[in-house]
Specification:
By secondary structure, the chain is mostly beta strands. It contains two helices and 17 strands. A hairpin with a 7-residue loop joins strand 13 and strand 14 (243-258).
Length: 307
């Protein structure tokens, strides 16, 4: 397995803008769970198929904040609006300790298995919640950063937290991270401060049922694109019962509530209104999307958390 080692300074020079809204691959899900349960989901936000091998895409992590990413080449063709799931290659049912097999649900969700053997200097996929993770493309001087999680040359110790709130270090450690639907392109330069809450929703440890699909404004089938003109509010949010309200200063004509698996769980059309009370059917706790259509034909969406 090929390893590319860049000095911290050289890698910093490679952090040039390489993506535009809905124009490239993004990291859509990050699974850092118990034992060897590790996975990365990549989403094609563009309108054309992307061949990872042809584009020389690579991904991997840095170790202990040393600023030197260990990258491995990846292959596969991802269609527009589709995903590819990569999981750690630990599938021996008799494996124990460091060789313990990944969860059966994670194995079933994976398209590609990678990095079966741990070598300290060549372990791109053995991330632990406090390792910056990179997605790049190209080679040599043409290598550019497509997306990343974390911050270059920083080891937060345990996991990254919301700035100012160390109690949220669990955000990137022992959790599943899902990219917010409003994120249309990757992070193409290491942030000054990494705040995981800005672009990521954090789900509990060993959550694998959201792998294999991604909801993004680039490809919402009901027509929500990155051009959003009208605002609305959802309250309360989070909800603990299946009731909430939608309010807007602009006249609304319909709404739809979509589950994380893409299922429409509630929808309604109505004559122009600025306020609507919504009752959900019996649905499981999780993250939902509320999409509203306005009288001028534009759409907007908001995340709804059901606890």
């Amino acid at each position: 397995m090929k390893t590319i080692l860049l000095t911290s300074a050289a890698f910093a020079l490679a952090l040039s803008l390489s993506a535009q809204d809905c124009g490239d691959i993004i990291i859509s899900e990050y699974v850092e769970a118990s034992s060897n349960n590790k996975a990365i989901e990549l989403y094609n936000a563009s309108d054309a198929p992307i061949d990872l091998g042809l584009g020389n895409y690579q991904f991997g992590r840095e170790r202990n904040g040393n600023g030197i990413p260990m990258l491995m080449p990846i292959t596969g063709i991802i269609q527009p609006g589709d995903v590819r799931v990569f999981a750690l290659d630990k599938r021996n049912p008799d494996g124990t300790g460091l060789e313990a097999p990944i969860d059966a649900a994670l194995e079933a969700a994976a398209d590609t298995f990678v990095n079966p053997t741990y070598i300290e200097t060549n372990s791109p996929f053995y991330f632990n919640g406090d390792d910056a993770f990179y997605l790049t493309k190209g080679t040599g001087a043409q290598q550019t950063l497509v997306d990343m999680i974390g911050k270059t040359a920083e080891d937060p110790g345990g996991g990254w937290s919301v700035p100012g709130d160390p109690n949220t270090s669990w955000w990137t450690e022992d959790n599943t991270l899902i990219r917010k639907p409003s994120v249309l392109q990757g992070v193409t330069m290491s942030p000054v401060v990494f705040d995981p809450s800005l672009q990521w929703d954090s789900l509990p440890n060993n959550t694998f049922d959201s792998l294999g699909f991604h909801r993004c404004a680039c490809h919402l089938t009901i027509g929500v694109k990155e051009e959003i003109r009208s605002a609305f509010s959802v309250f309360p949010n989070p909800i603990s019962r299946g009731e909430f309200a939608v309010k807007s200063s602009k006249q609304m004509t319909s709404f739809v509530v979509i589950s994380g698996s893409g299922q429409v769980v509630r929808e309604r059309e109505f004559i122009n209104g600025s306020y609507i009370s919504v009752e959900l059917p019996e649905v499981a706790p999780g993250i939902y999307m509320v999409v509203v259509e306005f009288e001028d034909g534009t759409h907007n969406f908001q995340k709804l958390i059901y606890r």
